[in-house]
């Protein structure tokens, strides 16, 4: 009776050890898969961050250009340039020289 009890207990111990090993292996495998997916997502987010930073820099440059254009548009020089180019106006003492039109 003693012998069968010890053998049965050893088998239960081995089965328990195998179950613990399998559960541990599953947890380690799940952690490995999750780590890989998080690294991949991190790489994608870094690329997206770089693209957004570039877009922000471009927008800031565009803002500076628009501010400079706004300042220029408030000057007398701008008004004169627009009157000359769009309306063909000139000062009375100016001489306009235009190339001949080809027939």
Question: How are the SSEs ordered, and which strands pair?
Answer:
Elements: H1 2-73, H2 76-87
Would you kindly provide a written description of the structure presented here, covering whatever features stand out?
With 103 residues, the protein is mainly α. The protein has 2 helices and no strands. The longest helix is centred in the middle third of the chain and has 72 residues, at 2-73. It is rod-shaped. The termini are far apart. The model has no long low-confidence stretch (mean pLDDT 90).
Which properties best describe this structure?
single chain, 103 residues, mainly alpha, 2 helices, 82% helix
Largest sheet descriptor = none
CA-atom Rg in angstroms:
40 Å
Please provide the count of β strands: 0
Helices and strands, in N-to-C order? HH
Structural class: mainly alpha
Secondary structure: helix percent: over 70%
Number of helices: 2
- What portion of the residues fall into strands of 2 or more residues? under 5%
The mean pLDDT is: 90
User: Shape from CA axes?
Assistant: rod-shaped
Euclidean distance between termini CA atoms: 125 Å
Low-confidence stretches: none
């Amino acid at each position: 009776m003693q012998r069968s009890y010890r053998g049965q207990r050893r088998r239960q111990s081995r089965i328990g050890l195998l179950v613990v090993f399998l559960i541990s292996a599953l947890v380690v495998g799940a952690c490995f898969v999750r780590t890989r997916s998080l690294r991949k997502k991190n790489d994608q987010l870094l690329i997206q961050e770089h693209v957004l930073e570039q877009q922000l820099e471009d927008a800031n440059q565009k803002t500076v250009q628009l501010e400079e254009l706004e300042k220029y548009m408030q000057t007398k020089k701008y008004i004169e340039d627009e009157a000359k180019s769009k309306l063909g106006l000139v000062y009375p003492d100016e001489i306009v020289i235009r190339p001949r039109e080809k027939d």
